[in-house]
Amino acid sequence: MKVEIWSDVMCPFCYIGKRRFEEALAGFEGKEQIEIEWKSFQLNPDLKTNPNISINQYLADIKGWTLDHAEQMNEHVTQMAAQAGLTYNFSKSVVANSFNAHRLAHLAKKHGLGDAAEEALFRAYFTEGRNIDDTETLIEMGTAIGLNAEEIKQTLESDTYADDVKHDIAEAQYLGVRGVPFFVMNRKYAVSGAQEVAVFKDTLAKAFTGWQEENPKPAFDTIEGESCSPDGDCK
């Protein structure tokens, strides 16, 4: 069963939602039959990368908050993240447009490394304070999860996967996604936001039950003969 997750690397609740979903999935009986696909979303596509401004100042400027209020809001989110086992260092976060990070994630998805890329990008932004719009940084991150450095470089120096990112965003708009994280299970159930683990467990169970009904295991009338099993037992 496919689970599609729309998120933005800059979204603090997306990383928290990832952890809570992973906790729900870890205890789910049908987890081996779950296929996860990450989808791109941009909360602020017009954002200009600016390593010279703090994330607190950026939020204060765009939302009309005081700097103190921005710091308080991020401290609250930091505490939420800690409860999910994550370390947020907003004082180190680099204000950066996430478009190229999403292109890297699409390249990683092509090689079966989509989840590894998302994890690396979230960690880079929220914990390590790295610039997720910097080519050398993205090359280093990509190679660390198993991608080829030259392929990453060629991707980032061209417009490769730009249409894929835009398609994901357009698809989210078509589906009525108004915020991230947004989890779609079997294209029949959706969870919006970093919900509690219990919500993910319940929704997974409902979606999986429906998926099993739609995709029953084939039943054969089998004529038995000499054969070998995966454990090496031949008879």
TrEMBL record:
Lineage, top ranks: Bacteria, Pseudomonadati, Bacteroidota, Sphingobacteriia, Sphingobacteriales
Q: Name one GO molecular function term.
A: oxidoreductase activity
Positions of the region Disordered?
215-235
Q: Which organism is it from?
A: Mucilaginibacter rubeus
User: Which positions fall inside the DSBA-like thioredoxin domain?
Assistant: 3-204
Q: What is this protein called?
A: DsbA family oxidoreductase
Q: Which residues form a coiled coil?
A: none
**CDD domains, A to Z:** DsbA_FrnE
PANTHER family assigned: GLUTATHIONE S-TRANSFERASE KAPPA, THIOREDOXIN SUPERFAMILY PROTEIN
* InterPro entries cross-referenced by the UniProt entry: DSBA-like_thioredoxin_dom, Thioredoxin-like_sf
